[in-house]
Amino acid sequence: MKRLYFSGLLAVGFLLLSCSKDTSTSVTYDTTDATVSTFSLAAQDSFPGIGAAVFTVDNRLDTGLIAPKDGDSLLYGTPLNRVVPRVTFNSRPSAAIYYVGDTSYVYTGYDTIDLTQQPVYLRVYAANRTDEKYYRIEAYAHQADPYLYRIDTLQTQLALPARTMQALRRNDGFYAFLTDGYAVSMTRSADAVTWTGEQAVTGLPQDVAVRQIVMDSVSADFCYLAGTSLYRSSDGLTWTASTLAFPVAPFAIEATLFSFAGRLWFVASGGDEMYLACYDTANESVSVLQTLPSDFPVSDFAAVVFRSVSGCPTAFLQGGFDRDGRMPSAGWSLEDTENGFRLLNLASSRYPQSAIAGAALVSYAGRLIRFGGLSADGSVSGIYESESEGLFFVAADTAHLPVPDGFAPRYRQSVVVAGDYIYLIGGQDHSRYYSDVYRARLNSIDWE
Fold it and tell me: Which of 122, 142, 239, 356 might form a disulfide with 233, Cβ 3.0–4.6 angstroms?
């Protein structure tokens, strides 16, 4: 309603507040106290979280301030033009009146007001109807959709020609290893935008599976296991090999999996058996955890290391090809528990795992995100997310993960997390290789 004649408004306010049960929780009665104790907003069906917003009340000598705690913002899309404030007072007032633009409201505890028409004031009259206090009410809503990813194109061609690539992140920058099947080279970048010229890599076998090069989490050296040897490099260019003493002889390393819990994990075969084994970088020793089924993947699998919601260090592996060239539908979780390492096959009739090869996994924003990959029917997969730590994946909301111009669905791409960003580097599809670089960031990744 438009501004009322003041004395009439005050009289109405006194009557309403005298009858209201939720205007004060005070157990005292001070006729001169016109201060506010707490302020909140009533929850709404469409925005239940609005009721959890925390406001602070600053009873300054001049105009008091009611504002979100620490200046925080309410959720994106919160309708600040139609909120219902809940106010409690330190002592029962005779009246409280909102001033919103050119409109006045008597506070009843049920009025819908518009907090976008700044300034908004609350005028509180003490029980003696003489002492009063002004408060300015402020509220803010995030202007950016918290679930939207911002995606930037950083580089369209980091290497020419584009070919099979493995990109890794180390503290001093990004490293990309490339191979054409005959020679291996490396290029690096501090920011993933500007890359150095390619340099030849020496000391690796000619048939190296570059996508299985990993970074040792203990020494930050680049490592690769093949044959009966561990290959190691501190700069990515010059590699040295050392022969491993494996508990089973003869043996051959089938695949390098990941660096996890201070160990380099790999698959080895000995006779008719396959083994999950690890190299302890601190003790420089090899141990076998357990035997593996014949369909355990040895190439084109996706792997990620993360800490579970229970605090358990975990490595997750999905998809790929087994040594017979089949694409099993399986997902494996390796946990570092108080009782030792435990390997679990997550595939079940209730939660079947995907048959996919050449995908990439990262842990980001409290979930696992899987990028690309080649499906069993030959199609190129999109982006999938798992909030169940790999138990099952669902297609990502494309409305919040927009595809940048020039990006083509792909497999065998590299995906790394650095700070608040995800970097997507290279890959291939059925007709070409890529060496482009994209950077994605979830709007809310650093919001509190």
Answer: 239
